[in-house]
Fold these 3 entries.
Entry 1:
Amino acid sequence: MSVRDVYVLGGNRIPFVRSGGKYLKASNQDMLTAAIDGLVSRYGLAGERLGEVAAGAVLKHSRDFNLTRESVLGSHLSPTTPAYDVQQACGTGLEATILTANKIALGQIDSAIAGGSDTTSDAPLAVNDSLRRTLMKVNYAKTPQQRISALAKIRPGQLAPDQPSNGEPRTGLSMGEHQAITTKEWGITREAQDELTARSHQNLAAAYDRGFFDDLLTPYLGVSRDNNLRPDSTPEKLAKLKPVFGKGEGATMTAGNSTPLTDGASAVLLGSRDWADEHRITPLARFVDGETAGVDYVTGNEGLLMAPPYAIARLLQRNNLSLQDFDFYEIHEAFASTVLCHLAALESPEFCKEKLGLDAPLGSIDRDKLNVNGSSLAAGHPFAATGGRIVASTAKMLHEKGSGRALISICAAGGLGVVAILEACE
Amino acid sequence: MTDTYSNLVNTNPVGKKIATQLGLPRPTRLRRYEEGQDLLSGPAAVAGIGDAPVAGWATGIIKASGGDVVPASPEASYDKKLGAIVFDATAARTLDQLDELRATVGPAIKKLGSSARLVVIGTTPAELQDAEAAATQQALEGITRSIGKEMLRGSTANLLWVDQDAQGDSSVLAAPLRFLLSARSAYVSGQPVRVRAADVPDATDWRHPLAGRVAVITGAARGIGAEIAKVFARAGATLVLVDIPAAGDSLSKVANDLGATALQLDVTAEDAGARIAEAVARKGDKLHVMVHNAGITRDKLFVNTDENRWGSVLDVNLRSQFRINKTLLDPSVKGGLADGGRIIGVASISGIGGNRGQSNYAASKAGVIGMVRQLSQNLADREITVNAVAPGFIETEMTAKIPFATREVGRRLNSLLQGGSPVDVGEAIAFFAEPGSAGVTGQVLRVCGQSQLGA
Ligand SMILES: NC(=O)c1ccc[n+]([C@@H]2O[C@H](COP(=O)([O-])OP(=O)(O)OC[C@H]3O[C@@H](n4cnc5c(N)ncnc54)[C@H](O)[C@@H]3O)[C@@H](O)[C@H]2O)c1
């Protein structure tokens, strides 16, 4: 079986919106369908059968067991387009891109949409375990009397629902608390985090102003821009916020330099050269390669969100590239400090030697090439939707530049990191 | 937008009775085109003056489109309600001859069914050296306009002025005649349309004249633009629909429902032409039809109109078209306008008659008319036609915002006693877009139910 080139042809997302706001009534399926339909109309694909659609959500209702397929059926794509769900925490969107790109490379399919959706406004509310056990008993009761006596056992305390949380099941710590530990270990300062955050907002605002998102985004429910965006954000303003993660004197992570809970969805169109030519679509970028890493954060050997440097090291080696061979670096800003920890790790001789087994550190990057059109701190981060946002925007950046290469990196819960390389098309 | 009054006097028995007793107008529900519909609702009575050189062509066109033809004469007794009258006055050169029209058309009008058509065919007056001949032909305009105002039950009267060198060619007449006879011209009345000689490609399927043609429509997310898109899709066109990024949500829905491509773009952007051409190139090598429909109003009395209200209306409604056309007319541009293509603008009766509080809007719409007249001449050698429609009162979200009393006046102040529907504007634009209307250029067609405003 030969392997062929795969291209990112376009993308679409709906504006990301802070949780509990404008998308309160939208489900993951609504949003994913909207993201797909916006992509369909942008490329005139109504009624077409695509090779497949792969997408997912991190926080899912049990009714969403076939989320992506249901979204396809509700979209204007041909109902003969197959689909499946992918779920890899915040890596979902990028992993879906890698999966479908690989199928295209192998010739199993010619085109695909990869994407993701997440909402913390319409998150599944689970009943707590003790109420669940009581209700199961009611359900299994054979006589009305048994049922009544089972129901009578419900106590007020049992009625409190289990809140959805992004806490790690194995450590009980929230992601922010985990990151606070890593931030401290790497000695990342509050100033550096606030500066990165302000840049993210300013870059995203500038990208909107120059119309960068005109062909990457479709308004939804009356929203036409990410509403977490603060164009006038400055390090000085951010410095006034109180830390929310970490404890005491050394706490540096605030609501400003951490991403808020956000709702949104995204979709990316991928295809082979032939498929693109047949549809007269000029590819935005070539999908080169992807790599995923996992780290042992449970024992405390590594930080929860520190997998990306491991994945980057392996990806660079496989592609014979150095860290400096890129024109754009898109490092997902789960927290400002995650990005800074990754950069510090890549620069650190000890880390690169002891953890990555390299003779020399991977080195530093040109900060002017980092998240040049803003990232999650400004746009927000609906978990599974972030990958699609980054892949489409990055591909467009390469297309605008007309040359060069980009590195995409996304950290995820469970000690995971997903990274990929895109390249401008000849 | 529902026209409550029309519904009341037409469907409610009490309302109907009261309206009849008080002599209030009872607007007819107009016959509108549906896929597969017959050209006419009854036979067409055809006659003419002298040797009536075009009557034979007209008969052939009607029959080829599935219509029945009966001869018209002052003595004829028609046994069925007529769907149309076609009267060929192209040979009329003296005032005396006009009496033949009076004698023949008068009795036939009494036999017209509802939503029926009168199409008078004349010779373009400007081509006639003899003053009485020119006067005779000009008189046809006065006659059709007056008959239009007398027509009952949704019937219309229109005039085709055919250039002398086009009178021997049935193909150049077919599309304009079919349009004026069919239900597609439901809200067009009292209007003259000039037909010039032109090379017309063989029409294969007159119900789907835009098959294989790529068309761009701006302002297509809602209102008239969305309706133009539907008519174009029905006619078989491949569509690229444009609207501002903020309207992208509804634009996407309109596009997906029609299998079209959505392009989120502000038409005033510097690179709008290039972006349009790029989107077109994805659908075909060249663009065939460019419809400039996007438009805004920023109403204020002239003395209170500031620079911004003035400038933005002119920019969106007119200046943007020059910039976009410039790019699309560059023959080297991939996805640019093909020779033999179409440029179609949307003017307004405000641009013809002016309107209180709309000096900026009227400037832009009158400007569209001026552009159409000149550009059509400039592009004649490339066989690109340039035309515009001038809608009257059309029931849209825009007109729904007009205060009730003013709205009622706007609605009723026309021969058809009702507002038009966005689809009526779409049909007229689709007519200009047809390959068959190659002989129609430089014209502004009012789609206004023969409104008295600006007339
Ligand atoms: N409704 C009427 O009675 C009437 C009468 C005469 C003329 N017209 C003309 O018909 C056209 C359509 O009017 P309508 O009633 O459908 O209005 P509308 O406001 O419902 O629709 C106009 C569309 O144009 C879009 N648009 C505005 N500025 C744009 C820009 N800069 N770039 C791209 N798109 C832009 C809008 O977003 C909107 O979708 C306009 O040119 C209008 O002046 C309307």
Note: Residues 175-210+286-423 of chain A form a domain with the Peroxisomal Thiolase; Chain A, domain 1 fold (CATH 3.40.47.10).
Entry 2:
Amino acid sequence: MAGDNITLETRGLTIRFGGHTAVDKVSCAFSRGVLTAIVGPNGAGKTTYFNLISGQLKASEGTVILNGRDITGLPASQRTALGLGRAFQLTNLFPSLSVFENVRLVVQAREKKGFDVFSLARSHSELADEANAILKRVHLAELADYQVSGLSHGDQRKLEVALMLAMKPAVFMFDEPTAGMSMDEAPVILDLIAEIKEQEHATILLVEHKMDVIRTLADRIIVLHNGALAADGEPAEVMKSAVVQEAYLGREIADV
Amino acid sequence: MLSLISHDTPRSKILTVILLAIGIGLLFAPFLFPGSRSMETAARIAVFIVLVASYDLMLGYGGIVSFAHTMFFGFGAYGIAIASDTLGRGFSSLAIGAIAGILVSAVAAVLIGLISLRVRAIFFAMITLAIASAFAVLVSQLSTITGGEDGINYQIPRELTPAFKLMSAKIFDVSVNGKLLNYYLLFFCSAGLFLIMLRIVNSPFGSVLKAIRENDFRAEAIGYRVVIYRTAVTSISAAIAAAAGALYAIWLRYVGPGTALSTEIMVDILLMVVIGGMGTMWGAVVGATVFVLAQNYLQPLMQVAVDATKPLPLIPQLLDPDRWLLWLGLLFILSVYFFPTGIVGRLRKNG
Ligand SMILES: Nc1ncnc2c1ncn2[C@@H]1O[C@H](COP(=O)(O)OP(=O)(O)O)[C@@H](O)[C@H]1O
Ligand SMILES: [Mg+2]
């Protein structure tokens, strides 16, 4: 967690919905090459924290800093362009477009070709090639021409991850990437996360409930409780701490 | 040929035949259907194909509901009228009028878009309705410039009028005069505008529009600034509507609220989009053709039916030409009921 490797930082990040404070003065820095697991019970504010970082929600207070730049006021699209990658907890794709087109759109956005009105979209073979390569990585190449709405839940989750890969972001934010996936599908995603961690020297934020996943992948754990940062540290350390036992892990601590 | 239509093939045999028939029919209209009434119909179809396609660019591709499309059409039409009226007849007046109308239209659309497209879609729709109504009132008030409710009659270059004879001989019994030139000016400009739109919807920009229509939240999340794209497509659409208005004004040599601004035209555009099929440029071709033909020929057709059914009770009364609007409405309801995705959507489904 070396200081000069910091890519993403939040300072006093807060959002209130009416009287309810969903994220409460969260200050935290994330470094390159580190996978941080974010844990906490349902409703703790993990997804909301992500939404504040990637720009789907506007903070009531506090700042978000990406690569030294204050991005708190920027719209989501610009944050994405600056290297913030986000995969959603609830699958959120382009349902009537093809699997291939979903990925191609992301590559096209990253290459800033969206305002080209004169060329044919299909003539950009470099975009298509890259989209196909990404589909291969997530084992969706055979389904490239299928309409997304017809895909199984597991395949939609894979596509969700494929879209983030296509962004080539500096920061990867996974929000329960394997939720609802079957035992034989989940490893595809988990292997990918491990692969990204090895190869891309990326900053990875992972919201995950499964303890065995956290144990194998995480370099660091932060705990959110009622929207506030309740613990932060090495996995073994955090899992042992009293606050985590009480707030989240409960009896599961016995397995550690 | 394929690249001319941006590889956007009709994807249905029947549809291909229908589109070819419409295209050939319009291309050779002066020779196939001589007579001023059918020429008027053909010109109206060509202009409305462009107008409806430009509206569909916004509605069917961008997912934006606007009620100001007639206003943009009017900008182009009044541009021609006012320029020809004040600067005098001439090609330079036409050029100045058309360019001014298109520019005003594009800029107005950008302003309306930036003010209101970032908020809810319904708000944008209401804003466009308010602005279009205000503009219509303004046009009727500023009668010294716009001619008010009476509109403006103006002169266009002699080369585009029947008085100008290109050659004394006739081709297929049709005299080669300025009116014919005027028709082909309108036809080829319309065709060009249509092909440009076909290219736009199949460009990278068009693919972003489809993504925004599908899921604007995610489109923003993957890096497309949605409000800018929506504003851009609104502006392009408005500029093309103005160009269509300019072409129609050159053809009609008259512009007034009834031909270029009325809410009736706005309703017609909506009906044509729905009948033809939203979200496909070919839908505009089919929708505009079917609708304009029905508008122009339903009444005479009904008269024929009345004469044929004279001895029968009740039926002649029902088919009275004065009831043509009722039948047009009925046709519309039936077509929406049986072809919810429009005629083009239906034909494509059948392969
Ligand atoms: N848009 C919203 N409006 C009102 N309340 C919200 C909104 N989004 C989230 N919340 C509330 O914020 C809290 C945190 O939710 P969330 O971030 O989804 O939790 P987690 O992802 O940790 O399960 C919950 O109580 C939720 O009801
Ligand atoms: Mg959540």
Note: The beta strands of chain A are 6-17, 20-31, 35-39, 61-66, 69-70, 84-87, 171-175, 203-207, 220-225, 228-233.
Entry 3:
Amino acid sequence: MAESCYITFPTTYYAIRAESVLKTQPYSFKMIPVPRSISSSCGTAMRCHCEDLAAIREILLQNSLELEGFYRLEEIGLRVPEVEEIHFDQ
Amino acid sequence: MINDFEQAGNCNSNLYFDNAATSWPKPEAVYKAPEIQMRQGCGNPGRSGHTRTLEADRLVYRAREAVAGLFRVADPSRIIFALNATDALNIALKGCLGKGDHVLYTSMEHNSVLRPLGTLRRDGVITTTLIPCSETGFPDLDFLEEAYRADTRLLVINHASNVTGTIAPLQKMIQSAHRRGVMVLLDAAQTAGTIEIDTGALELDLLAFTGHKGLLGPTGTGGLYVKKGLNLKPLREGGTGSQSEIDLHPESMPERLEAGTLNNAGLAGLIEGLAFIEQTGIAAIREHEVEIRAYLYQQLQAISGIRLYGPADPGSASCIVSFTLDNTDCGEIGYILENNYGILCRTGLHCAPLAHKAIHTFPTGTVRLSPGYFTTRADIDYLTGALRDIAKLAAG
Ligand SMILES: Cc1ncc(COP(=O)(O)O)c(C=O)c1O
């Protein structure tokens, strides 16, 4: 089953800054409205391939970004998907 | 005498000497960008999820990055947008001062500093000490050294006087304050975009700027730089598009100090003003303004009856020359300049009463001429020609 990973941010400022930082990096991603099944402070999230999540997180942290949460979601259209929150050590 | 009534008060006139009030003309792109933004970028930043919103978010981010770039701020989240310098100064003063704080400020401060301080003082929140300035507008540094107290929290400095152009000795004043652990708030309303300000090198704590003067942007834009680690109490709380479920305003910068929908159309114009400054180079802008100010000063010096205020050295002043003409009313000179010559300038006290006391022109004020980057020597020649006529008339 197809799935995507999501990164959420404390504020819009960090969401847009993340987009600007990642633009020059070789990962595909998209800024999207936060899916309703995820709770987030800011309305915009970053969707990426789950295999890229750790690397993207690393780059964003190196650029002093404040990140809120990381999630894995099944892509099942309009139905509410299962959400798995991903925790990184440190 | 040229009696060109057609030109009077006409914004097509090139004879605009009121850039210290608001700059004109603006680069062409500054006029166009707000319209494009309103027609094509209708989203409310941070509020919805659709692509227009995202575009609006990107625009605000670009504006923040551009301002951060100009002031050499590494982290754009430390730049917040406000209505203008007045708004930013209010956010800074009311956000950082608390009960029992002592504040130092200079005679050259604008009412946008004097009045918030006046209210806080009247309400018994703060005490203040005024740092007097010389006849040419320079703060008395010896007085400053003696003025610190154990409860002194903030020193407010007007980077360049909007009356005389006098540039404050920033580095010395900041070092003096920091030696005592006192924070510094810089009012850069008159210098942002025309004089280099490196917040990092200066170790500034707070810097207020306005978008519609030297930054060549639209009115209704401006903001504040807040040094990392300095957490101001927000003056306003409300919608930010983030953390909507919580009934307290977010603490994270920049949202912490921004509530409500931002002036996107204005910021689109401001981005273009900043782009123009970057392309032209702030050094080139300053060089032109120093040359124009020197020329204006020298031409006015030769007119008998005219008294000049502020430093003679153009390197010590922004692009402003203030003068009075013996036995004449300043307002009358302004009126004749506009009606008989199509020349626009500002007369009176310029919202800075203490500055006029320092230079001994209170309460009648001065005629203030503030050319800008787009002013030519030919414009100055026309202006000084008009003033020669007026001086002759006044001498009878
Ligand atoms: C020194 C100084 N501070 C503050 C301001 C206020 O700027 P604004 O009217 O854009 O808020 C001005 C200009 O009016 C000024 O000259």
Note: The mean pLDDT of chain A is 90.
